[in-house]
Amino acid sequence: MNPVPKTSITPVPATIPREQHVISRKNISKAALRVLYRLHDAGYDAFLVGGAVRDLLLGGHPKDFDVATNATPEDVKRLFRNCRLIGRRFRLAHVVFGPEIIEVATFRGTGEEEGGEGRHIVDGLIVRDNVWGTIEEDAVRRDFRVNALYYDISDFSVRDYVGGMQDLQSRELHLIGDPATRYREDPVRMLRAARLAAKLGFTIDPKASGPFEELGPLLGDAAPARLFDESLKMFLAGNGLKSFRMLEQCGLLKFLFPATARALKRGDEALRSLIEQGLANTDQRIAEGKSVTPAFLFAVLLWGEVRDLAHGWMAKGVDGNEAWARAAAHVVGEQCQRVAIPRRFTLTMEEIWSLQPRFEQIQRKRVFRLMAHPRFRAAFDFLLLRAAESPAIRELGQWWAHAQQLPQDVLAAALPASTGSSIGLTTAVAPRKRRRRKPSGKSGSA
């Protein structure tokens, strides 16, 4: 494979004509085509670029379409009334077609100089980047070679300046430029490498994964809100389980979810089973077009540390409710320093955790009160995930599953009325075997 071009080298382009690639305009968003054609008709260069081109070449069906052009953001705004300009660090044009947004970016220059009005770098981190350039310069400024492929609307060819087509064929992810330098410019590129490799089923070039351990702590400098968005892309895009395993494999999990990494390091296989099953269930729901919530997923990822802290405080004599509240507050507080989970989600997480010990309180009023709780369903689903923790938890989950199927009067009659009463799960509303009917004496056969 050819060496990756450095930003100081002008790459020689390879052009793949229409008859030698699989991209068809029928698989491209009509809104994206409108943007491409209007730019082209106005005399500008216009290319579909990035993940959409990559996925189309792999036979996929991208949902998001990005455009690269030599038109400036102000030029784009003059062409489209439905355009708004966003961003300070990266100035972009968003062309809005109802719910669909086509992102249009001007070709970025290499901007070797640190400073000036357009590009500003602090301690290796790009904090502003509005230096315009050529398509060749734009290509070497992108992160991965497979993301630096351009579909030319003028002749329907694909332009490859850095070897992205080779990477698609070899199914290996290569970073453009020196990995350590690129990660220092933007530490989130490390997470993107893991996410993209998991999504595509690619391996990561050892030169690209080599600096992860040394430079992983730089993720602590990334904006927590940005890491929240990256976490959603990682775990709520249908490849959550693969992404989780890739984060572990790359050694990046401890930088994004330190509490999860600590809990797993203690060798808790039941916790690993819970996390992987929770991620697999989420992937399945997404595949089926069902709704998912980040709160449940984060509750799964952080459960081990919350549970262990709560049990530790209870062992020291702290009241149960107080112990769970302290544990939840501690873990959520630590995690939000890394990943800015919105309060509407952390509240749900804390409720899911705090309801877990209440499932063990098999008493009439408590059972009905718990069933009426707004978070009962989520907490019950969480209880079922915990089945691998112990046979007792598995039996508890089975009991609650059966109890929900009974009429309220039948359930109430079977439950003890007072808190002091004690009955075993096997005797309280135990699933009953159906009695077989006796033959009526009549036969349907001659």
UniProtKB/TrEMBL annotation:
Q: Which residues form the active site?
A: D64, D66, D143
Give the record's keywords alphabetically: ATP-binding, mRNA processing, Nucleotide-binding, RNA-binding, Transcription, Transferase
Q: Which Gene3D superfamilies match?
A: Beta Polymerase, domain 2, cca-adding enzyme, domain 2
Enzyme class comes to transferase
Pfam families annotated for this entry?
PolyA_pol, PolyA_pol_arg_C, PolyA_pol_RNAbd
**GO molecular function per UniProt:** ATP binding; poly(A) RNA polymerase activity; RNA binding
Bias regions of kind Basic residues — which residues? Answer: 431-440
Which EC numbers does the record give? 2.7.7.19
Region: Disordered, residue numbers: 426-446
Q: Which residues form the Poly A polymerase head domain?
A: 46-173
| Gene Ontology BP, a term | mRNA processing
The segment(s) forming the Polymerase A arginine-rich C-terminal domain are 317-438
Write down the InterPro entries for this protein, in alphabetical order: NT_sf, PolA_pol_head_dom, PolA_pol_I, PolyA_pol_arg_C_dom, PolyA_RNA-bd, tRNA_ntf/polyA_polymerase_I
Q: Does the keyword ATP-binding apply?
A: yes
Q: Which reaction does it catalyse?
A: RNA(n) + ATP = RNA(n)-3'-adenine ribonucleotide + diphosphate
Q: Where is the tRNA nucleotidyltransferase/poly(A) polymerase RNA and SrmB- binding domain?
A: 201-263
Family per similarity comment = Belongs to the tRNA nucleotidyltransferase/poly(A) polymerase family.
Q: Which NCBIfam families match?
A: pcnB (TIGR01942)
Give the protein's biological function.
Answer: Adds poly(A) tail to the 3' end of many RNAs, which usually targets these RNAs for decay. Plays a significant role in the global control of gene expression, through influencing the rate of transcript degradation, and in the general RNA quality control.
Q: What is this protein called?
A: Poly(A) polymerase I
Q: Which organism is it from?
A: Frateuria terrea
